[in-house]
Amino acid sequence: MKLTIITPDRLAYEGEVTAVTVPGSAGSFQILKDHAAIVSTLDDGKVIVKKGNDEQVIIIKGGVVEVKDNNIIVLAEGIVQD
């Protein structure tokens, strides 16, 4: 799967991943390969990016996520920590 995290001022992350957990407004959820198409609002919180056995945490300030055809796009209002 391809993950792209974009803020208004920069490209924060782009690359192939095996799983992503995002802070959905109705609760956190994980996105795996072949996930159903979805658009969801995001709260402030952790985006957990898994690539094999490696894990990276990016803390965002709200936004929107779109998942379609194994492409994940996170439009974040800002990045607190990456």
CATH topology assignment: ATP Synthase, domain 1
- How far the N terminus sits from the C terminus, by CA atoms, comes to 20 Å
Count of helical stretches: 0
Identify the overall geometry.
Answer: globular
- The gyration radius over C-alpha positions equals 11 Å
Which strand order do you get reading across the main beta sheet?
2-1-9-8-5
Strand content: over 45%
Per CATH, the architecture is: Sandwich
CATH class: Mainly Beta
Mean pLDDT: 96
The domain count comes to 1
Could you write a compact summary of the structure shown?
Produces ATP from ADP in the presence of a proton gradient across the membrane. The chain has 82 residues and is an all-beta fold. It is 0% helix and 66% strand.
Could you walk me through the main structural features you see in this protein, from its secondary elements to its overall organization?
The protein is mainly β. The chain has a single domain (2-81), classed as ATP Synthase, domain 1 (Sandwich). Helix content is 0%, strand content 66%. The protein contains no helices and ten strands. The strands form two sheets. It has a five-stranded mixed β-sheet with strand order 2-1-9-8-5, with no helix packed on it. A five-stranded antiparallel β-sheet has the order 4-3-6-7-10, with no helix packed on it. The chain is globular.
Highlighted features:
single chain, 82 residues, mainly beta, ATP Synthase, domain 1, five-stranded antiparallel β-sheet, 10 strands, 0% helix, 66% strand, globular
Blueprint of the fold:
Layout: E1 2-7, E2 10-16, E3 19-22, E4 29-31, E5 38-42, E6 45-51, E7 54-60, E8 63-68, E9 71-76, E10 79-81
Main location: membrane
Function: Produces ATP from ADP in the presence of a proton gradient across the membrane.
Domain ATP synthase F1 complex delta/epsilon subunit N-terminal: 1-77
